[in-house]
Every structure is written in structure tokens, then in C-alpha cells.
């Protein structure tokens, strides 16, 4: 098994419920096990700013899937939850990004790990630092990246649905 981190987000419908559903689906997969789930954060949109605020979280999993197979699983979960990709950085019901995969650096036509923009995004760094502040990404600890990031407008909220069918291992 290898430890991987994922970033989840959304701003259409009920994003906390959608992320909880995605986390439940990940944990239900035979090749994945949730190890930690961050707090939930409400964050301003990034890239395309004329849209509703997002909710974001990160999770650490253990998996026996390859990095590309993990990406495929994330995309399958998104499709199963009716994610439609219309506009880059646009509104979405759910988004699941593979951030890290062990300590590996992987670049293929389908996947780039570590996620190429994760160190620029406080909406990724803040929840990731909640569960893995000492994780080294691109030569620096996540907590160090976060210290340099623009955290304006990011608010921690604890709005995980009571009906979450898997007991989240929260930090």
C-alpha cells in the first residue's frame, strides 16, 4: 500500500454532502482506505472568480492502485456524481484531484504528481496542512508552503453531514 493525498472541492448544490459521498466511495473501494480527512474549509474561487465560494478538504488514503488507476477511480467517482466539465476552473458539483502519491514524482500524458499547482493554492495547502503539515512536496514541507500562501477569505467550517456513512478519520 502507498500513501496518497487527494484534494476535494465543489461549489454547486451541497458540496459538503458531495465530498462526504466521494469520501465514502473512496473508502468503499477494495484498494483504498481513508487514513485521515481534514477539516472542511470555505474558500473563495480561484482562477475564475465570478462564481460561488467553494468548499474544500483533503484526505490521505492508503491504496494499492497505481497513480493512473487512482486518477481513474477519482474520475469515475466524479462521473458517478454527475460532474460535468464545461469550463476550466468553473463551477462544479465535485472535483477530486490526486495531489501526491507517496514521495513519487510522476509525469505522463494523463497525470502529473505532485499536482502541478498545489503549492500555489491555499485552498489545497490549508486542508492538507491540517492532516499532513510535514509532508514534503517539491522540496518543502506543506506547512512551509502554507506559511507563504495567500490565505485571505479561507474559513474553516465543520459542516460534515451527520449521515456520513463512513466514520471519517479526522485530524
From TrEMBL:
Q: Give the protein's function.
A: Catalyzes the transfer of pyrophosphate from adenosine triphosphate (ATP) to 6-hydroxymethyl-7,8-dihydropterin, an enzymatic step in folate biosynthesis pathway.
By its UniProt entry, which SUPFAM superfamilies does this protein fall under?
6-hydroxymethyl-7,8-dihydropterin pyrophosphokinase, HPPK
Which gene underlies this protein?
folK
Give the family, as the similarity comment puts it.
Belongs to the HPPK family.
Query: Which species is this UniProt entry from?
Result: Agrobacterium larrymoorei
Can you say what this protein is called?
Answer: 2-amino-4-hydroxy-6-hydroxymethyldihydropteridine pyrophosphokinase
InterPro entries (alphabetical): Hppk, Hppk_sf
Quote the Pfam families the UniProt record gives: HPPK
EC identifiers of the protein: 2.7.6.3
One GO-annotated biological process of the protein: folic acid biosynthetic process
Q: Which PROSITE patterns match?
A: HPPK (PS00794)
Which keywords are on file for this protein? ATP-binding, Folate biosynthesis, Kinase, Nucleotide-binding, Transferase
Amino acid at each position: 500500500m502507498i500513501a496518497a493525498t487527494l484534494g476535494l472541492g465543489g461549489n454547486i448544490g451541497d458540496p459538503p454532502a458531495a465530498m462526504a459521498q466521494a469520501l465514502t466511495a473512496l473508502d468503499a473501494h477494495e484498494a483504498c482506505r481513508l487514513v485521515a480527512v481534514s477539516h472542511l474549509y470555505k474558500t473563495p474561487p480561484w482562477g475564475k472568480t465570478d462564481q460561488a465560494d467553494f468548499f474544500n478538504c483533503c484526505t490521505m488514503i492508503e491504496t494499492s492502485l497505481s497513480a493512473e488507476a487512482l486518477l481513474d477511480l477519482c474520475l469515475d467517482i466524479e462521473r458517478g456524481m454527475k460532474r460535468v466539465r464545461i469550463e476550466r476552473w468553473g463551477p462544479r458539483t465535485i472535483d477530486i484531484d490526486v495531489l501526491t502519491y507517496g514521495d513519487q514524482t510522476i509525469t505522463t500524458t494523463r497525470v502529473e504528481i505532485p499536482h502541478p499547482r498545489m503549492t500555489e493554492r491555499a485552498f489545497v495547502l490549508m486542508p492538507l496542512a491540517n492532516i499532513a503539515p510535514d509532508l514534503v512536496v517539491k522540496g518543502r514541507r506543506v506547512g512551509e508552503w502554507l506559511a507563504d500562501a495567500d490565505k485571505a477569505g479561507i474559513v474553516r467550517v465543520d459542516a460534515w453531514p451527520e449521515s456520513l456513512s463512513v466514520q471519517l478519520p479526522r485530524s
